[in-house]
Amino acid sequence: MFTGIDEVDWASLRHAHGSAREVPGWLRGLASTDAAERQTALDGMYGTVHHEGNVYDSTLACVPFLFSLAAREAVPERGCIVELLVSIGAESGDARAREAVRADGEVFVSLLGDPDPGVRRAAAGAMVRFVDDPGRVLELLRQRIPVERDGRVLLALTEAVGVFVRRYPARADAVDLLVAQSAPPHDPGLRLAALGQLALGAPGRLPGDLVPTAVRLLRERSARRARVPDRSANDTLVGRLRRLRPSDEEGARLLRTLHTALGDRTGDRIDLLGGQLTSPDPVDRGNAVWMAAVLFRGWRADFARPVALVGGQLGSEEEWLRDAAVSVLSELFGLAAPAADDLHALVASRPDLWTHRWERGSPTVGGALKALARSGDPRAVPVLAQVLAGPVVPGGLGDEIAHLGPAAAPLAPALRHRLGWIPLDSPAADTRAAPLLTALGAIGDVDAVPEVLRLLNGAPDGLGVRDKIAGQTVATLDALGAAGRAAPVLRALLHTRHAAAAAGALWSADGDAPAVLPVLVRELRQGEPGVRRLAARQLARLGPAARPALPELRRAAASGQAGLRTHAACALWHVGRDPEPVLPVLRAAWSESPGARGPIARCLAAMGPAGMPLRDLVSAELTAPRRHTARTGGHGGRAIAEDETLRGLCEEVLARQTRSL
């Protein structure tokens, strides 16, 4: 197996973390009889030699030895080695690596009948990818399918036929093989796998009743699985964990494949989810909850029915299923409204879930209460009041209250009280005050001004740890229309890193452009990226009074990151009212940075008829099936809410432009 391994100058070769001198030890470790040593060796290969899918000269040097290992029946767990070779040759996208693996592709042919089912399972897809005679490959697959007895290997063979169909779309005989596998008398799981592969490679050959067929097959498969004794039922730690959170990764993969292949056919995917979420099997429903999350995050459609069905899982006796549903609903914000009754029922019946206590750290708002508040349902207010009255305010409580807006007004006195009792010299003053400020600002509680002003006492030198939230404090005073009462403090902040926020608030208070304009121009020119964007937004508020800043705004709109260019261009419109230098910047930023589309849409709404040349972008956004945040990863749990906000803004833009026609 290792002939010539010591003749390779491994020390001169490289991997992800430097010299490859330890690689021979890992290769030998892959053949060890000790399972822990084999796992360590495999981790070393993926963690350095093939780190994150990359290929190095040491990776190429390993390929012959990996093939030698894969071909020896005495080597345990060779399926992992075949999978590593597939990853190196196919998934890395490296042409040198692909040729190196293809050169020994016949080894995969020999492994198709290996005694080890794990090897056979991995070899099926490897053969399709690295043996270049399509007729021979298809015939080998056709011969293997009727004699294979291992269910997991049969699924791998079906997936291999699907890969073949996508590589050789003109081979109708391969599609016919998939069609045959999707029909009786094959096992329900195998038929589901074949339907998924047809959807990926030959959607025209799918049955007209695809969704009902898939749901029926899923339930037949689940019924058969339920009759098989659960090997995890033994009284071991692993067994107990599996009972707490059962899983069916194979079934999940089958349905994920089908969902992925259906893509923007959201109607079919919603119907498929309907079948999954009403399955008698809680494991099927759990898989469906997570698949629903993927659909909600990535696509746009009327999700009222699947959201309500996810909400229906909140009444499950299975704690793990309830927790999964809560996790998904908490990301939906306003879209969770169809599940609000179920959320409220859970919140009302389980006060122990109002907060979540971590092993370390402060308590946080419980998921169900968080989801109910984020949906904007006022029934969350009495519960939030009880939580707020408790001895410890959960972290982020104010942020969740803010989603209720003015409906949370009954909570304002308690919020003010909490804010007023924060010790200003506490190291945690900023983290405790920030969410309370967010909530009071969203409610619009003008009675909170004294407590908010207290956070700026002694500014700028006496802020201490409150310096971290001085900008938010100023913005809250501004939003409450109380900046005038803080004018002396705001003027003191004009020479600090909070100058842009203070200048904008001062403008709101007294409209003294000569006092704030030089400060904003300075911050636009010299500040950090976030400060420059804020300065541009504040200049936009000044409108025509900021005309002396036009040259600096033009420079900012012509350079820098898309976010700065966007805000500078929007400010150019509000200040100069000339669309000519603005529209090209906004068009470029719209395509370059999907995250800038929200500010751009707000600007276009303000421009009215002047923004008509960009109407095509807005119209295309409203007809796009994909969320704009799906292309960028979004911003954590707010990705769906950000996309829904953009859609609302785009509708407003078109409505204003249409009224002008």
Explain how this protein is built:
The structure is a single chain. By secondary structure, the protein is mostly helical. The chain has helices at residues 23-29, 35-49, 57-71, 78-91, 95-102, 106-111, 117-130, 134-147, 151-167, 172-181, 188-201, 210-227, 237-244, 249-262, 266-277, 282-298, 304-312, 319-329, 340-349, 367-374, 380-388, 397-402, 412-420, 429-443, 449-454, 470-479, 487-492, 499-510, 513-526, 529-542, 550-557, 562-576, 583-592, 597-607, 615-623, 639-660, and strands at 14-15, 18-19, 355-356, 364-365.
How are the SSEs placed, and which strands pair?
Layout: E1 14-15, E2 18-19, H1 23-29, H2 35-49, H3 57-71, H4 78-91, H5 95-102, H6 106-111, H7 117-130, H8 134-147, H9 151-167, H10 172-181, H11 188-201, H12 210-227, H13 237-244, H14 249-262, H15 266-277, H16 282-298, H17 304-312, H18 319-329, H19 340-349, E3 355-356, E4 364-365, H20 367-374, H21 380-388, H22 397-402, H23 412-420, H24 429-443, H25 449-454, H26 470-479, H27 487-492, H28 499-510, H29 513-526, H30 529-542, H31 550-557, H32 562-576, H33 583-592, H34 597-607, H35 615-623, H36 639-660
Antiparallel strand pairs: 1-2, 3-4
Helix pairs in contact: 1-2, 3-4, 3-5, 4-5, 4-7, 7-9, 8-9, 9-10, 9-11, 10-11, 11-12, 11-14, 12-15, 14-16, 15-16, 15-17, 16-18, 19-20, 23-24, 24-26, 26-28, 28-29, 28-30, 29-30, 30-32, 31-32, 32-33, 32-34, 34-36, 35-36
Number of helices: 36
Q: N- to C-terminal separation?
A: 78 Å
Structural class of the secondary structure composition? Answer: mainly alpha
Strand fraction equals under 5%
The Cα radius of gyration reads 31 Å
Could you say which overall geometry the principal axes of the C-alpha atoms support?
globular
**Main sheet?**
2 strands, antiparallel
Nearest-integer average pLDDT:
93
Major sheet: arrangement of strands:
1-2
The percent range for helix content is 55-70%
Q: Count of DSSP E strands?
A: 4
Low-confidence stretches: 237-241
